[in-house]
Specification:
CATH superfamily of the largest domain: Nucleotide-binding domain of ferredoxin-NADP reductase (FNR) module
Strand content: 5-15%
Number of domains: 3
Strand order of the largest sheet: 6-5-8-3-4-7
Helix content: 40-55%
Structural class: alpha/beta
Low-confidence stretches: 1-5, 81-97, 596-610
CATH topology of the largest domain: Rossmann fold
CATH class of the largest domain: Alpha Beta
Bound molecules: flavin-adenine dinucleotide
Number of helices: 19
CATH architecture of the largest domain: 3-Layer(aba) Sandwich
Shape: globular
């Protein structure tokens, strides 16, 4: 009592809470800290969830396999990754048993998968239908249910932080403070380079969490609108409209306008129709916004420094991964250009992509992403050295490089006798009609390219699955080619054990025959390789714009290839791919029951491979085809999914 009486506080009479003045500059930064704790905790949680994935990827050698392109004077000196039986990436042993617990785990995973994959279809309007391309039946909302939940969660956290305990009508600073606190997370989600720390699940690459970058950016805009709107409301209420002209307000309005420009330039129609405009506007306006906001309030600076550091890190890592290489452009048909970059030996995984800049002509100012369709050459695969990309003509830049490749008057090949002879032969053929200038016999056009990457790629481990269904639409075939290479790669790295997929079904929806013909040699080559590894590889080709009469399957393709004049029902494809699995596993389950609950793992080892079971579904192409595949899996019954041993999914859209 005495001590309290003697304390210095006794000189102050406590002010009742209702009469205390809200000290924005003390209280609001605390909410910035709370907001930062919320999103960093979500990151930390996702890191914890990812630990099993990281360990598995490390054990199967994938974690560091696709970090930077490497080249060597002696390609055969590169050690082929070999996986011993003990290091083999096995499916969780519990899941290969017929026990109740294993089926329970599969069931829980299947339920989570259904919720996370399910995507809402758009209302059936003509305009939207026009957006889906000819591979798909209908348009879908771009975000799946799980992505919507994540976005809403983020928005809820932001709104809670600027509303709780804030007297917005008297002091509108809180949304301004929370807007600043959002900057680091927005920049973090925009980075392309692999981070030393995983962002969300490390199985994701920038193109997978890019949607969050967009939505966090929009949430920032909403927060800034509330901040500005509430201040203007106060000025009007207090009859202080001259405050709008004050230096601080003018800088705030400038920062807001620049942010608005970023939002407008990033809208989907702008991104799709004028990608370069979107990109240039994005960078310019954002830098302008940072300058304006740092003059608007000194409280912004502590939030700008981490953003600059993160962006500098991204640029630095990208610079380390840049390579300038010789490349050959080959026009394989009227709309497809093959880009062969021979001087690369390792450091990528098929299905990853690189940003390509062709250092010739006006295309030099743009870099575009293309998927790597082949695995690094090994003594088994005997595939050519280097990286092979295919670019479908989609707009100006892809058209430019196609024309460059076709420009036979300026064909430049190497100086050696063989290539001079090749050029001579080709130019003699040039006398023939125009259509002979395309095709793989074309000697190609030598250019220099700058490549940045590799990025992204397939993140499910195919050695864990017995069957694989690959669904591709249009130029999405490049990802499918890479995925076939990956199936064969996991099979060869574990060639001394029964592991990896035994059945791979490809469904490719394509507009015209010419692309099928152009890629037939590659499809045949992969089929022959698969046969050597006892993998059954089948091609089902669907023409979305079939000519009448329907042409024959190109003679070069395997006999099992089927050509159909319609778009497939993807749910039907998934069910068909499940059938053999379900019946095999049902037989195994029955025999396990007969043998008094004998472990199924031994049984399935003899029938279907020791390392995995279940079905992996991979879809790539226009958004519609990927969404249809997601929904086909989400709509499967739990029983089907448990019986087949689980389904893995990877979807890739060639649009950002
Ligand atoms: C991860 C990824 C992998 C891809 N892999 C392949 C492939 O293997 N083969 C293939 O033919 N196509 C692939 N694409 C698509 C290819 O990048 C575009 O077709 C190409 O960039 C079009 O450029 P353009 O100037 O000719 O056409 P534009 O008319 O400028 O663009 C056509 C479409 O491509 C998008 N686009 C344009 N530039 C870029 C860019 N720099 N980054 C992302 N999207 C862009 C536009 O938004 C638009 O939707 C891939 C795209 C992505 C995102």
């Amino acid at each position: 009592m005495n001590a309290h009486f003697n304390s210095p506080d006794r000189r102050f009479i406590p002010i009742p809470t209702q009469y205390q003045i809200y000290d924005s500059y003390t209280i609001d930064p605390k909410w910035q800290t709370k907001f930062t704790i919320i999103w960093t905790s979500v990151l930390a949680f996702s890191f914890l969830v990812s630990i099993p994935y990281i360990i598995r990827s490390w054990r199967n050698g994938r974690l560091y396999s696709g970090l930077a392109i490497q080249e060597t004077l002696d390609p055969y000196s590169i050690k082929e990754p070999s996986i011993t039986r003990d290091k083999l990436p096995r499916q969780d042993p519990r899941l290969t048993q017929s026990s109740f617990s294993s089926r329970l785990i599969l069931g829980i995973r299947a339920m989570i998968q259904s919720v996370s994959l399910w995507t809402l279809p758009m209302p059936n309007l003509t305009w939207w239908k026009g957006q889906v391309g000819d591979c798909c039946r209908r348009a879908y909302f771009t975000l799946s249910v799980s992505q919507i939940v994540l976005v809403l969660g983020y928005m809820a956290a932001v709104i809670a932080c600027f509303v709780v305990g804030a007297e917005l009508t008297q002091n509108s600073n809180r949304p301004g403070f929370i807007a600043l606190a959002q900057l680091p997370v927005i920049i973090l989600l925009s980075l392309k380079s692999p981070l030393p720390l995983p962002v969300f699940l490390p199985s994701l690459s920038y193109e997978h969490y890019n949607f969050l970058h967009r939505w966090t950016g929009r949430t920032l805009f909403i927060t800034a609108t509330v901040h500005g709107g509430m201040w203007i409301n106060q000025f009007i209420k207090n009859n202080e409209m001259d405050q709008i002209n004050a230096e601080k307000s003018r800088r705030g309005i400038l920062a807001y306008a620049l942010m608005g420009m970023v939002v407008i330039a990033s809208l989907k129609p702008v991104r799709r129709k004028c990608y370069q405009l979107f990109w240039i506007a994005h960078v310019m306006f954002f830098v302008g916004f940072f300058a304006a906001i740092s003059y608007h309030t000194p409280y912004s600076r502590p939030w700008i420094y981490p953003c600059v550091a993160l962006y500098a890190y991204d640029l630095f890592v990208r610079m380390l991964r840049y390579r300038i290489k010789d490349a050959t452009l080959v026009p394989v048909d009227d709309t497809l250009t093959m880009i062969h970059i021979p001087d690369c030996d390792a450091g990528w995984l098929p299905t990853q992509h690189v940003m390509v800049r062709v250092l010739k002509g006006s295309g030099v100012f743009e870099s575009h992403p293309f998927t790597i369709t082949n695995a690094p050459s090994t003594s088994f695969s005997a595939s050519p050295r280097g990286i092979i990309l295919y670019a479908k003509v989609a707009g100006d830049w892809t058209k430019k490089i196609h024309n460059l490749a076709r420009d036979i008057k300026t064909i430049e090949v190497g100086d050696d006798d063989e290539t001079i002879e090749e050029r001579q032969k080709f130019l003699e053929r040039e006398e023939k009609p125009d259509d002979s200038i395309d095709g793989l016999q074309h000697p190609g056009r030598k250019v220099q390219v700058m490549i940045d990457g590799p990025y992204g790629g397939l993140k499910i481990d195919l050695s864990q699955y017995e069957n694989v269904l690959l669904v591709g639409g249009g130029s999405g075939i490049t990802f499918i080619l890479g995925a076939i290479e990956e199936c064969l790669r996991v099979k060869t790295t574990a060639h001394n054990v029964v592991c990896g997929p035994s059945q791979v079904d490809v469904a490719w929806v394509v507009r015209d025959m010419s692309t099928i013909q152009a890629l037939s040699p590659t499809l045949l080559y992969l089929h022959n390789l698969a046969e050597k590894l006892s993998v059954s590889l089948t091609y089902n080709l669907y023409l979305s714009n079939p000519p009448n009469p329907l042409p024959n399957v190109p003679a070069i393709l395997p006999k099992s290839t089927i050509l159909s004049p319609y778009r497939p029902e993807i749910s039907q494809l998934v069910r068909t791919a499940l059938l053999p699995l379900s019946s095999t596993r049902m037989n195994n389950l029955e025999s396990a029951i007969i043998q008094n609950e004998t472990s199924l793992s031994e049984e399935s080892g003899s029938v279907s491979g020791i390392c995995g079971n279940g079905l992996a579904v991979i879809a790539c192409g226009p958004e519609g085809i990927v969404m249809e595949t997601k929904n086909a899996i989400a709509n499967l019954s739990l029983k089907d999914r448990i019986t087949c041993g689980g389904i893995g999914f990877h979807g890739e859209c060639y649009t950002l």
